[in-house]
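User: Could you check the structure of this?
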Amino acid sequence: MNVTHPSFAGLDLLASAVLLIDDGQLIRYINAAGENLLAVSGHSVVGKTLAAVCTGSATLQSALDNGLNNNWGYTGQNIELVRGDGEKMHLNCTVTPLRPDMATGARLLLELQPIEHHLAATREERLIEQQQASRELIRNLAHEIKNPLGGIRGAAQLLEYELPNPALKEYTQVIIKEADRLQDLMQRLLRPHRPMLPATVNIHEILERVRSLLKAEFPGSLQIVRDYDTSLPELIGDREQLIQAVLNIARNAAQAMNGEGEIVLRTRILRQVTLAKKRYKLAMELKVLDNGPGIPDDIRERMFYPLVSGREGGSGLGLTIAQNFVQHHHGTIDCSSRPGHTVFTLRLPIGLA
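Assistant: Sure, the predicted structure tokens are below.
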């Protein structure tokens, strides 16, 4: 099979998954987005039927049959498809009959668009807008809170000096320590982030650093599993920001599991990916998976907002900082969670758009 025919070249630049299918329902071509979507390589699927690569619904199979037999086009929404690795997806799909082409052998064009991608893009834009507004509100509040806190702390110190009973100083110390804690939080909210210091970085060296920090912080039965794609090239980024972003996510997972359970650090290469409205030839996908209790429903949509925490005593800044650092690198961060399975997915561009 000729998978590099010139007629196919433009399809490789499309964001949606495209497959070309011949009269025998064999795949003649799959573009880069299709390889990413179905988690396959083009060389491994060309010459096979779609059913041999993934499990589709009867509706999709009927659309392919009608496209070949009756020259009918088809557009469907929320079509279920199961990849070879078992992952279930819901897609919008279009089947377009083509004129017979002896050079390519293609008779049908099948276009697949994950519903989740559209929802994620919309959600990402909404989150960025809301976060910008939230950060401005938080900074204004921090300014207003900072000065009264200084007065409260000073008054507690003066009161401590005047108290005749030394046992009562325990209460003034509580006021002073809590005022100090809040002052520190206000400083963190007001402190501008240092500018990025971009350099060539190896993502696996960053993950090994995160892994060693977690093992030191949680020396019990926490298991940290490596699942690395060693073919990943180096990327341009700020090493400290990337360490902090991944560490904040992984530390949240470890704390949710009380230092027990399993965290998986997984890397993969992606081709022809759109990130923050820009198209990149190559991107890196990093997944942080854990088998903890999951993220509570009531905070799932707000977990990247400042001061939102699902843990008693948490500052609610870890995920906000992680998202900011990922955005500094023109990447995206997303999360899916259910009890026993939480996944944070970071995607970062490799090279120029």
